[in-house]
Amino acid sequence: MTELSEVWRLSAAELGRRYRQGALTPTEVAKACLRRLDAVNPTLNAVIARRDEAMLRDAQAATERLAAGRPLSALDGIPVSIKDNLRTGDQPTTWGSPALRDHRADADELPVARLRAAGALFIGKTNLPEFALEGYTDNPLFGATVNPWNTTLTPGGSSGGAVASVAAGVTPLALGTDGGGSIRRPASHCGLVGLKPSIGAIARGGGLPSLLLDLEVVGPLARTVADTRLMFDALRGPQAQDRQSLGAAEASRQTADRQALRVLYVPALDGAPVDPQIASHCRRAMDVLGNLGHDVREGSMPLDLAFMTQAWPIIGQAGVARLFERFPQWRAQASAKYHDMADQGARHSAARLWAVLEDIELLRRDCERAFAQYDVLVTPAAAALPWPAHEAYPPVIDGQPVGPRGHAVFTGWVNAAGLPALAVPVAPAANGLPIGIQMIGRFGADDRLLDLGEAYEAAAPWAHRWPDL
């Protein structure tokens, strides 16, 4: 029997089991999560908007449904946090910017609405960088979020508040977004599982304007693969207003089962530096996959990703330029660096942006050829260990100077390709900082990745590790 003071350590799946047994109630769990939030959030700054009274009311309703044997779903009564770039009808959605300090939506956007309809208990909104466009978590409204494993360091970004809260036990689940690695890299920095689904696997609708074309997706964060799957199952599925979701549903049905997978491990991209401990521990993780019976090989990336170096900043700059064109009042209050981004974006020609779109379409076609040869590609999830919390990126990796995306070289192309990718923890660094790999599948192969991640987790478990807060 777990003491009520330790309930925050339980997984979503275990909470569900105890609800069904009558050993716990959502009300007890909600109170435990709020106590945990009180204890750790002053240090972490992970949750920036709370809904304590509303959460307790929702928990009481879930308790009554479960007692009557009428749960809404497997997530009924399970605490979840929501990233602050996802619109919620009962709280502001600030996007981390003074420009949206008082922005309120009339209704939940679609993934949030699906969670609410499933009975999930929303604890509040989690912190992120302004406009969710950077790989660390700091903004002018709420300040920096820190990493539970070392509170002088960043949890990464842009889902930094989400991962910090789950890693610290505030909630077992968090809803994040990933436009270039914003779920997978923070998950790796905080010892969590993070799923970036195939484009359309989780339908979108009613959200903030897109700054990254169709590259940004919504996805779950959790401490275990089973919990990640639980949340993904509640979120997934097509919706007519999101036509890409119709194609993703069909692609998922067409993914064939395989017992022994053809796995290609790619330790580096185009000579870009990788932290030596990350390189060593990720390579050792391949031995685990091999021992599970998979055909694991090491090699170079079977795709031409050279265009990403120039294309990536163009996409973000053009996105911000269009945002400020539509909402000039937001530009007036946004931070100066986003004014500069917008000015750069406005100078790009339509022909240049068209060329980026052509390159992305070519990459998506090339991926189909690559996945005719391999079932799963594996890389490190991030090239660097966490760095100081107030710095936007690490300027040096393994003794080599890098730019703003040096730590993020492994992730952005996956968004451009529209593929699913799952970040899972491997053995931590010598100082205890978490490290993760990302498993990448063909379009629609989200379930295959979850199956592989679950098998890996069973062979090399990590959920027993907790930061010392």
Description:
The protein has helices at residues 12-21, 26-44, 52-67, 110-117, 160-167, 184-190, 225-235, 243-254, 276-291, 308-326, 328-333, 336-347, 350-373, 412-417, 446-459; strands at residues 47-50, 79-83, 121-126, 173-178, 193-196, 217-222, 262-265, 295-298, 376-380, 396-397, 400-401, 421-426, 435-441. By secondary structure, it is of the alpha/beta class. The chain has a single domain (4-459), classed as Amidase signature (AS) enzymes, CATH 3.90.1300.10. Helix 2 (26-44) runs antiparallel to helix 3. The model has no long low-confidence stretch (mean pLDDT 97).
Which helices and strands appear, and what pairs or packs with what?
Layout lengths: L11 H10 L4 H19 L2 E4 L1 H16 L11 E5 L26 H8 L3 E6 L33 H8 L5 E6 L5 H7 L2 E4 L20 E6 L2 H11 L7 H12 L7 E4 L10 H16 L3 E4 L9 H19 L1 H6 L2 H12 L2 H24 L2 E5 L15 E2 L2 E2 L10 H6 L3 E6 L8 E7 L4 H14 L10
Parallel strand pairs: 2-3, 2-4, 7-8, 7-9
Antiparallel strand pairs: 1-3, 4-6, 5-6, 5-12, 9-13, 10-11, 12-13
What is the alpha-carbon Rg in Å? 21 Å
- Overall CATH architecture: Alpha-Beta Complex
Mean pLDDT: 97
Strand order of the largest sheet: 1-3-2-4-6-5-12-13-9-7-8
Number of domains: 1
Helices and strands: which structural class? alpha/beta
Give helix and strand order, one letter per element, not per position: HHEHEHEHEHEEHHEHEHHHHEEEHEEH
Low-confidence stretches: none
Q: What is the CATH superfamily classification?
A: Amidase signature (AS) domain
Task: Report the span from N to C terminus.
Answer: 23 Å
What's the total helix number?
Answer: 15
Please estimate the helix content: 40-55%
Major sheet attributes? 11 strands, mixed
Which of globular, elongated, flat, extended, rod-shaped describes the shape? globular
